[in-house]
């Protein structure tokens, strides 16, 4: 296998049922370079990289390695050519150890003493790239960042000169992002090349040397990082200026919409995940829950919305005790949910887009006559959701799993917000959304607030939390380290320390340094 010095995709096209996801795309990357692939949701980035990785066959176009055309018809072909891909959702087997996972994808697994020999290889690579990974641990014991490192080691062990990463930072903590960037820079200095799909313009500006921008399946621009700024990139991507700061007017608090008292909830492994959390949320308010993920946020959101059992404590929505009611009943009491695991809990992947648009509808009579569903009305409703929430799809007669990740998210958001719930519980709603869609979503949340709704917003993105929230709770190891008012600039300075558990505030006693 010759080392890849240069890789090109020339006039690449790929269509699905007559709709072009990629059209005449030209792209190149060379040794020692990190290329950012940028584009709105549904612009065709994942499709293009899936072609390069052999998961899709293009309708036309050519892949060239070191100026020679190559045919890539499967991921195995791609690996043979020195290409590795780390998908957005890791492809590891949770109950297997790091070594076993690596052996599964490793072409040269030795017949004798495979474990010892693979362990040696992992240790050798970990040393070379300064990875911190224990090869005998089970994958489920690893953090998202560690799992990603296992995927990277797998690719490197198979001889990847080019590494493709699909939205690699969306599941990482700020610390893990730093670590990933260090690894990528190290790879770069050793002559590897990297293509990163990301929506985060700050990341492009930090890690990439060059960027190629896609819009509606075509290349619409490209630039060396040195010659562009964040604003220009956003304009290239969305085709207009994007507001980076939204305007949140002051509103008086309305009536109490949610009251949570002394809530205790267990996590997946039966250990306490939420440990005595109490707070209220009011109409005309966005209440933010900040913190590094994995500190009980998911369990708290799931407990409020009925997906997870509450061990003790109480949740009241309006005047109704909703503790441990079913998700259906809680929804009927005006609490909507945009879940963190959107594919698992937010949609029925094998159903059509229009079926998914009316999932959870409590006024099904709007869409049925006697016992029959009225598809004419359902489709009309779906079209308006698709239009209002700018879901990029060529048709509503497609299975929703075929939509890009960001567009699935937009449909879920549209479905939940358009029902005008009194409380919207939104977990990381802008994950995977492009800047244009993020701006639109934030406007929608503020609109809900203005209209008298309340939003409970879980986010790791502090910029988002500061822009949108009236009050902010910081969660660490299952507890609130304090609830801060957005106008309390002095205490907000400590938010980083609170997220790390080094400072906690109680409302009356002030700061308690631990
Ligand atoms: N298997 C498929 N069948 C039908 N349409 C598909 C399929 N895969 C992708 N598409 C369509 O191709 C278009 C491009 O999707 P793709 O996933 O490449 O976008 P993306 O730029 O990666 O978006 P995101 O940022 O939201 O992940 C979308 O309109 C999507 O619905």
Task: Give the arrangement of secondary structure elements.
Blueprint: E1 6-16, E2 19-30, E3 34-39, H1 45-52, E4 60-65, E5 68-70, H2 75-80, E6 83-86, H3 98-105, H4 114-129, H5 144-157, E7 162-166, H6 174-189, E8 193-197, H7 201-207, E9 210-215, E10 218-224, H8 230-238, E11 256-266, E12 272-282, E13 285-290, H9 297-304, E14 310-317, E15 320-321, H10 327-332, E16 335-338, H11 342-346, H12 353-357, E17 368-369, E18 372-373, H13 375-388, H14 405-418, E19 423-427, H15 435-450, E20 454-458, H16 462-468, E21 471-476, E22 479-485, H17 489-492, H18 495-499, E23 503-506, E24 510-513
Parallel strand pairs: 3-8, 3-9, 6-7, 7-8, 13-20, 13-21, 16-19, 19-20
Antiparallel strand pairs: 1-2, 1-4, 4-5, 9-10, 11-12, 11-14, 14-15, 17-18, 21-22, 23-24
Adenosine-5'-triphosphate binds next to helix 1 and helix 14.
Account of the protein in words:
The protein has 514 residues and is α/β, with parallel strands linked by helices. Among the domains are: 6-94 and 160-238, Rossmann fold, CATH 3.40.50; 257-349 and 421-513, 3-Layer(aba) Sandwich (Rossmann fold), CATH 3.40.50. Helices cover 33% and strands 28% of the residues. The protein is built from 18 helices and 24 strands. Strands 6-7-8-3-9-10 form a six-stranded mixed beta sheet, sandwiched between helices. A hairpin with a 5-residue loop joins strand 11 and strand 12. Helix 3 crosses helix 4. It is globular. The chain starts with 5 loop residues before the first strand and ends with a strand. Residues 508-514 have low confidence and may be disordered. The structure holds adenosine-5'-triphosphate. Adenosine-5'-triphosphate (ATP) binds next to helix 1 and helix 14. It is found in: Cell membrane.
């Amino acid at each position: 296998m010759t080392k890849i010095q240069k890789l090109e995709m020339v006039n690449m096209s790929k269509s699905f049922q007559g709709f072009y996801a990629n059209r005449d795309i030209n792209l190149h990357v060379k040794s020692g370079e990190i290329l950012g692939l940028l584009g709105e949701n549904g612009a065709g980035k994942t499709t293009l990289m899936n072609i390069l990785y052999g998961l899709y066959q293009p309708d036309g176009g050519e892949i060239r390695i070191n100026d020679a055309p190559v045919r890539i018809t499967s991921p195995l072909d791609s690996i043979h050519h020195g290409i590795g891909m780390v998908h957005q959702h890791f492809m590891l087997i949770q109950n297997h150890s790091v070594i076993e996972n690596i052996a599964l994808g490793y072409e040269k697994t030795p017949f004798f003493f495979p474990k010892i020999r693979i362990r040696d290889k992992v240790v050798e690579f970990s040393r070379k790239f300064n990875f911190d990974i224990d090869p005998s641990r089970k994958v489920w014991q690893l953090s998202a960042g560690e799992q990603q490192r296992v995927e990277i080691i797998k690719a490197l062990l198979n001889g990847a000169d080019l590494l493709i990463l699909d939205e690699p930072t969306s599941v990482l903590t700020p610390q893990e992002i730093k670590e990933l960037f260090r690894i990528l820079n190290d790879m770069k200095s050793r002559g590897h090349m990297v293509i990163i799909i990301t929506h985060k313009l700050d990341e492009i500006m930090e890690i990439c040397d060059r960027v190629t921008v896609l819009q509606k399946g075509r290349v619409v621009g490209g630039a060396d990082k040195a010659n562009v700024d964040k604003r220009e990139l956003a304009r290239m991507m969305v085709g207009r200026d994007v507001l980076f700061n939204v305007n949140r007017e002051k509103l008086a608090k309305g009536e109490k919409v949610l009251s949570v008292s002394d809530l205790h909830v267990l996590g997946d492994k039966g250990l306490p995940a939420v440990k005595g959390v109490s707070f209220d949320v009011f109409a005309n308010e966005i209440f933010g829950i900040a913190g590094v993920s994995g500190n009980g946020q998911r369990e708290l959101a799931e407990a409020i919305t009925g997906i997870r059992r509450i061990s003790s404590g109480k949740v009241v929505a309006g005047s109704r005790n909703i503790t441990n009611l079913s998700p259906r009943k809680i929804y009927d009491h005006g609490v909507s949910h945009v879940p963190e695991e959107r594919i698992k809990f937010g949609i029925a992947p094998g159903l059509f887009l229009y079926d998914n648009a009316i999932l959870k509808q409590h006024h099904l009579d709007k869409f049925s006559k006697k016992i029959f569903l009225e598809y004419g009305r359902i489709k009309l409703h779906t079209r308006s959701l698709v239009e209002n929430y700018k879901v990029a799809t060529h048709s509503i007669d497609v299975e929703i799993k075929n939509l890009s990740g960001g567009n699935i998210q937009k449909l879920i958001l549209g479905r939940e917000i358009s029902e005008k719930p009194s409380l919207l519980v939104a977990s990381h709603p802008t994950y995977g959304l492009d800047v244009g869609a993020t701006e639109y979503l934030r406007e929608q949340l503020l609109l809900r607030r203005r209209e008298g709704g309340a939003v409970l917003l879980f986010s790791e993105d502090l910029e988002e939390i500061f822009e949108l929230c009236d009050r902010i709770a910081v969660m660490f190891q299952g507890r609130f380290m304090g609830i801060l008012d957005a106008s309390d600039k002095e205490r907000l300075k400590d938010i980083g320390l609170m997220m790390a558990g080094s400072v906690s505030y109680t409302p009356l006693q002030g700061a308690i340094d631990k």
